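seq:
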Amino acid sequence: MTDGIERGPRLALDVGSVRVGVAVSDPDGLVATPVETLARDMAGATDVARVVDEVRERGARVVYVGLPRHLSGAEGAAAASAREYAVQVARAVAPVPVHLVDERMSTVSAHRSMQAAGRPGRKQRSVVDQVAAVIILQGALDAERRAGARTGELVTT
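struct:
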């Protein structure tokens, strides 16, 4: 444990209405990398089960779920959906904590970085959610280092 943060990989999820992007960090929480894009199962069975598998296989110490707020900070339907998903994940991965972290502009940033890398728009769909999850996770990792503690809002079940 360094600076109050237990060493180990962190997992991040970018929750959309159709897909869920997944990213993971190294055990020291320095670098976020993409893992996969899951098809969103609105019943929450297969995608949440896959998240549970990732948490267990990688020994994740925390799961960060992006909370899509409006630029004003207000929450809309997408944020409500992400909160509901985070509760499902929290129940499924307990006792591993799940935290909601602000993800304003992560998908926009993901699209921009992919365009800058020369990836055509129609090919972005398959990986944009993973890139957004990487952006969410890297932001959480940076916030952890600044604060010396986990970041975001702890999800309670």
